[in-house]
Amino acid sequence: MARIKVEDVVDHLDTEFRRALEETIKEHFPRQDFDAWAIFRTFKRQVYRKCSTWEEVPDDYIEFD
């Protein structure tokens, strides 16, 4: 099993994750106003709380260039 540092992955992909989360909220709550950055900060905080610093993932989920 490979290990990934979850916080670093989330931080690296923060723009993509934030946009995906924003589009998800818009799709499910189209008439609601919200602060996408505030929601994303909460999301990140919850990921950090729910996941270990290092998480194991199957080797076939990792590709090296």
Molecular structure report:
- This protein has 65 residues and is α+β, with helices and mostly antiparallel strands.
- It is built from three helices and two strands, in the order E-H-H-H-E.
- It has a two-stranded antiparallel sheet.
- The longest helix has 15 residues.
- The radius of gyration is 14 Å and the shape is elongated.
- 0% of the residues are buried.
Radius of gyration computed on alpha carbons: 14 Å
Query: Unreliable stretches, pLDDT < 50, 5 or more residues?
Result: none
Q: Can you count the beta strands?
A: 2
- Taking the alpha carbons of the first and last residues, their distance comes to 18 Å
Sketch the major β-sheet. Answer: 2 strands, antiparallel
Shape annotation:
elongated
How does the helix and strand content classify structurally? Answer: alpha+beta
Number of H/I helices? 3
Strand order of the largest sheet: 1-2
β content, as a range? 5-15%
Which series of helices and strands comes N to C? EHHHE
Percentage of residues in helical conformation: 55-70%
How would you briefly describe this protein structure?
This protein is an alpha+beta fold and 65 residues long. The protein has helices spanning 6-12, 14-28, 36-50, and strands at 2-5, 54-57.
Keywords:
single chain; 65 residues; alpha+beta; two-stranded antiparallel ribbon
Present the secondary structure layout.
Elements: E1 2-5, H1 6-12, H2 14-28, H3 36-50, E2 54-57
